Amino acid sequence: MTPLLSALVAGTVGTVSAPLQLDTLESLVETATGPLGLLIIAGYSFLIAIALPLPSEIVLVAPLDLGISETGDFVLITLVSGIGKAAGSVVAFRLGHEARHRSGRLVEWLRDSQFDIVEWSERRTIQLARRYGYIGLAIALSVPFFPDTLSIYAFTILEEDYLKFAAATFVGSAGRLLVVAGVFAPVTSLFGL
After folding, report:
1. DSSP code for 52
2. 77, 69 in Cβ contact below 8 A?
3. Rounded CA separation 171/38 (Å)
4. Counting C-beta atoms within 10 Å of the first and last residue's C-beta, which end of the chain has fewer, N or C?
C-alpha cells in the first residue's frame, strides 16, 4: 500500500475511533508485521465482529512485510481479516440467538407498550432479510468506514445458518477492503505517491 493510502485510511479510521480510546489496539494493528502481524489482524477483525464499533479498514495500514509483493501482502491481509471477521461473526451469531431467547419479558413489555417498537422493527428487519438475505449482509459489510458490529447483530436476529452467515461476513469483509483499496489506490497513484 502506498504511504498516502496508508495515511488516508489511518487518518479516517483514527478520527472515528479517537473518542473510544482504543489507541493501543489501533497502534498494534498499524505496526503489525510478519506472521505475528497476521495473528494481530485476525484477532482485531474477530473483535470488530463481536464488540468493537470501529471500521475494519485500519488493517490495510499494517506494514505486514512478509517478504512478498505488496499485492501478496494485501491479499493475505484481506484473507486473514475476512477469516477473523467470519469467525467473530459466528460468535456474534450465537450471542444474538442467546439474547433473543433470553429477552422474553422485555419483548413482552415492549409489545404491550403504546408504540409497538418490536413489531415495527421486526417488520423492517424481516423485509430487509427477505429481500436481500445473506447477500444483503455481504453488501452491508462492504460499506467502507461503517461499524461491522451493527450489521452483524442486526442479521443474527433472523438468520439461522452459521455457515452461510460466516460466508456472507467473509465476502462483505473482503469486499470492503477491496472497495477501500480500489478507491484510494488510484488516487494515490495518480499523484505518484
Report:
1. -
2. no
3. 19
4. C
Q: CA 118, CA 115: separation in Å to the nearest integer?
A: 9
Q: Give the global pTM.
A: 0.74
Residue 129: the pLDDT is: 62
C-alpha distance from residue 88 to each of 9, 32, 48, 169 (Å): 23, 20, 8, 9
Give yes or no for a contact between 84 and 46, defined as CB atoms under 8 angstroms apart. yes
Below-50 pLDDT ranges, the chain: 2-20, 106-107, 110, 117-118, 121-122, 125
Residue-wise pLDDT tens digits, 117-136: 445 544 554 565 668 888 88
Q: What is the pLDDT of residue 60?
A: 93
Which of 50, 60, 135, 55 lies closest to 84, judged by CA?
Answer: 50
C-alpha cell at 49: 465482529
Q: Which residue has the cell 485476525?
A: 42
Give the C-alpha distances (Å, rounded to integers) separating 133 from 19, 140, 156: 33, 11, 11
**Cα–Cα distance measured from residue 82 to residue 46, given in angstroms and rounded to the nearest whole number:** 9
Q: CA 133 to CA 123: how far, in whole Å? A: 14
Closest alpha carbon to 97 in 160, 149, 48: 160
